[in-house]
Specification:
The chain is an alpha/beta fold. The protein has helices spanning 39-42, 70-84, 96-107, 134-151, 153-162, 168-171, 174-185, 189-201, 229-238, 254-257, 259-274, and strands spanning 3-6, 9-16, 21-25, 47-51, 89-94, 112-118, 217-222, 242-247, 281-284.
Length: 285
């Protein structure tokens, strides 16, 4: 089981295939296993690098707010790429993972061949017509933490399902609900508390500099994703070298809940990138 150890962190990672390197970062509450269904088609042309971020999966989950942030996780990614001898790669992620990769592109642009931002809300732009106050967000976080500490992370998953806080596809499918609860069972208490705190409260550091990013960037957003949608539109409007994909009939976490459409959109982007085509434009899938 490959592990990169530094400070007091033991980071689990996996590498598959050969070819130009692609790093993929999972989202909040998930792990590298979230990418397994996409590996068969990706490894036909690429070397795929995945890992469990700190606080997730088989990687160490330290306690303390000062142990988690987008920048800390982006530096973890940099350590991993340096450990593997990867000087430049296509970097991509979903949700929280996309925000980590966005941070990486701002801090280490010379190491990013192309950027894939799927369902990413690291801009912290609120949903349109949102009436939720900062105090209400804080109250929701405190309630999440109470549930975690008293009953565990799986019960937090049940709480999210009962509150209707999951994508429509999950709420309508018992198998997807069970898959989600099983995923929660592999999430540590420290990760569920401390990672959630910064993800729900903070923006990508230096996000206002996004307009200066020049690498080919692919923005992917689901039609029903009211949380991440405004941030995706903002990035669409300011990035100079981007493609924007709008996936119909799906909400948050498009790689998991509309995998065929996500695969086609990403596959087309990668093919155009390899052929040296102009990747700019907008697509509906």
């Amino acid at each position: 089981m490959p592990t990169l150890s530094f400070d007091d962190i033991n980071m689990h990672y996996e590498v598959y295939g050969s070819g130009p390197p692609i790093f993929l970062h999972h989202g909040l509450s998930s792990s590298c296993q979230g990418w397994y269904d996409h590996l068969p088609w990706l490894i036909k042309k690429y070397q795929i690098i995945i890992h469990d971020a700190r606080g997730h999966g088989l990687t160490t989950a330290p306690a303390g707010d000062d142990r988690y942030s987008y920048e800390i996780m982006c530096d973890d990614l940099n350590r991993l790429l340096e450990h593997l001898g990867v000087e430049k790669a296509i970097i991509g992620g979903v949700s929280m993972g996309g925000a980590v990769c966005h941070t990486f592109a701002l801090k280490y642009p010379q190491k990013v061949r192309a950027l894939i931002l799927s369902d990413t809300a690291g801009t912290r732009i609120p949903p349109r017509q949102s009436t939720v106050t900062r105090e209400q967000v804080q109250s929701q976080l405190e309630e999440r933490e109470r549930v975690i500490r008293e009953y565990g992370v799986v019960e937090l998953g049940r709480y999210a399902l009962a509150s209707g806080l999951m994508p429509r596809q999950v709420l309508e499918d018992e198998k997807l609900q069970q898959d989600y609860l099983e995923r929660c069972s592999r999430w540590s208490v420290n990760g569920a508390i401390y990672v959630s705190r910064f993800v729900f409260r903070t923006a990508v550091p230096g996000v206002e500099r996004s307009k200066d990013l020049t690498m080919p960037t692919f923005i992917i957003i689901g039609e029903e994703d009211v949380t991440s949608g405004p941030g995706a539109e903002w990035l669409r409007d300011i990035l100079p070298n981007r493609r924007y994909a709008f996936l119909k009939g799906v909400g948050h976490n498009t790689p998991r809940y509309k995998p065929e459409a996500w695969r086609k959109a990403v596959g087309d982007f990668l093919d155009d990138l390899e052929q040296g085509k102009d990747i700019r434009g907008e697509v509906v899938v």
